[in-house]
C-alpha cells in the first residue's frame, strides 16, 4: 500500500554510490533521455499532423473517457490543470475537442472529442504505434514486457510524490 503523499517515503539505502557514477549511469538521466528520444520518434512518425505527444495523450484519454471534466482529464494524463486548459484551448481552436460548462457545476468545464479529433487519432494511430515500437526496438519481447511492467511499477510507486499525480487504474 502506498503512503500518503504528505509523508516522506523512507527508502533503505542500497549502498549505491550515485555521485561516483557517470551521469549516463544514473536512472533520472536515463529516464529523461529516453523520454527525449521517444518524443523525437513520435514527432518524426506523426510529423504530417503537427501534433505533440501531450496533445496526443489528451486526445487519447478523451477517446477512452468520453466526455470528461477538465480536472478528471488532468488526473488521467498526469498534467496540471493549467497546462491541460492551455492545451485544450489550442485543440479547441483546431476543432479537435469541444468544451462547455459542466451541467453539474457551472464553475467547471467538460470536454469531449469531436469527429475531427477522432479522425486525427485514426490517422496518427499507426505513426504513434511505430514510435512506441521504435522506442522499445532494442528489447526482446520478454525484455519489453518486463520493462513495461517495471516502468509501470515505478510510476505507480512514485505517483504520489509527483506535482501532478495521475489517477491510476
Quick summary:
The chain is mainly alpha-helical and 169 residues long.
The helix count comes to: 6
What's the architecture in CATH terms? Answer: Orthogonal Bundle
Compute the CA-based radius of gyration.
Answer: 19 Å
C-alpha end-to-end distance = 15 Å
User: Can you give the helix content as a percent range?
Assistant: 55-70%
As laid out across the biggest beta sheet, the strand order is 1-3-2
3D architecture notes:
- β2 and β3 form a beta hairpin.
- The protein has 169 residues and is mainly alpha-helical.
- α1 packs across α5 and α2 packs across α3.
- It has one domain: Arc Repressor Mutant, subunit A (Orthogonal Bundle).
- The protein is built from 6 helices and 3 strands, in the order ααβααββαα.
- The protein has a 3-stranded antiparallel β-sheet with strand order 1-3-2.
SSE diagram, text form:
Layout: H1 27-45, H2 53-65, E1 68-69, H3 70-77, H4 81-93, E2 97-101, E3 109-113, H5 115-136, H6 141-158
Antiparallel strand pairs: 1-3, 2-3
Amino acid at each position: 500500500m502506498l503512503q500518503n503523499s504528505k509523508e516522506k517515503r523512507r527508502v533503505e539505502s542500497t549502498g549505491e554510490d550515485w555521485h561516483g557514477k557517470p551521469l549516463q549511469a544514473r536512472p533520472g538521466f536515463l529516464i529523461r533521455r529516453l523520454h527525449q528520444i521517444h518524443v523525437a520518434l513520435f514527432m518524426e512518425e506523426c510529423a504530417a499532423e503537427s501534433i505533440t505527444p501531450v496533445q496526443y495523450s489528451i486526445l487519447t484519454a478523451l477517446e477512452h473517457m468520453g466526455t470528461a471534466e477538465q480536472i478528471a482529464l488532468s488526473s488521467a494524463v498526469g498534467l496540471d490543470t493549467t497546462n491541460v486548459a492551455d492545451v485544450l484551448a489550442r485543440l479547441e481552436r483546431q476543432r479537435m475537442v469541444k468544451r462547455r460548462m459542466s451541467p453539474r457545476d457551472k464553475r467547471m468545464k467538460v470536454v469531449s472529442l469531436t469527429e475531427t479529433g477522432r479522425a486525427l487519432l485514426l490517422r496518427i494511430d499507426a505513426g504513434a504505434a511505430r514510435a512506441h515500437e521504435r522506442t522499445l526496438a532494442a528489447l526482446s519481447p520478454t525484455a519489453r514486457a518486463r520493462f513495461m511492467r517495471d516502468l509501470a511499477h515505478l510510476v505507480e510507486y512514485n505517483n504520489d510524490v509527483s506535482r501532478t499525480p495521475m489517477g491510476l487504474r
